[in-house]
Amino acid sequence: MRVIVQRVIESKVVVDEKIVSEIKNGLLLLVGIEYEDTKDDIEYLTNKISQLRIFDDENGIMNKSIIETNGEILSVSQFTLFASTKKGNRPSYIRAAKGDFSEPMYHIFCFTLSEKIKKEVKKGIFGADMKIHLINDGPVTIIIDSKNKEY
Predict the structure, then answer these.
(1) Which residues are CB-contacts of 40 (< 8 A; sequence separation ≥ 6)?
(2) What does the angle CA 67 – CA 31 – CA 42 come to, to the nearest 5 degrees?
(3) Measured between alpha carbons, how far apart are the two ends of the chain, in Å?
(4) Is 141 a catalytic residue?
(5) Active-site residue, selected from the candidate residues 80, 85, 112, 141
């Protein structure tokens, strides 16, 4: 599993010119799933994301988590995170899991993260053509890959 974590002032998902989800201060997550992913990957990522200290404290130092700031999370499934550009100029998405596997995993990921932050994780619409609007705060953008744990 691979997640792009972006600290945002606001973010929203638009489908067919209608806002389907939106948040204010918090995190926008772009979530990619591959066939090798398990609940262990979900557990690792949801623990890491919920505890990630990337919000400013009273001294202006990134020292607070999403839980400590009572921020919101918007999660969007994005299979293109597993694009391979090794050969040619057309990306291959062979590593990205198809919907029959990735959709349930994505929903388990969001549910598990909701439990950890004790707040609903807002979502886009799985498989839809979504327009993602965001104001990145900082900018702060972090890539976390459950298969490449950095300790």
Answers:
(1) 146
(2) 65
(3) 17
(4) no
(5) 80
Report how far residue 78's alpha carbon sits from residue 81's, in angstroms, rounded to the nearest whole number. 6
Whether the predicted model's global pTM rises above the 0.85 cut: yes
Domain residue limits, the chain: 2-145
Over the stretch 24-72, which tens digit does the pLDDT of each residue have? Answer: 999 999 999 999 999 999 999 999 999 999 999 999 999 999 999 999 9
Q: Phi then psi for 118, rounded to 5 degrees?
A: 55, 40
Interatomic CA distance for residues 53 and 49, integer angstroms? 9
Architecture of domain 2-145: 3-Layer(bba) Sandwich (3.50)
Q: Does residue 29 contact residue 74 with C-beta atoms inside 8 Å?
A: yes
Long-range contacts of 110-113 (CB under 8 A, 24+ apart): 110/75, 112/42, 112/43, 112/46, 113/46, 113/49, 113/50, 113/73, 113/75
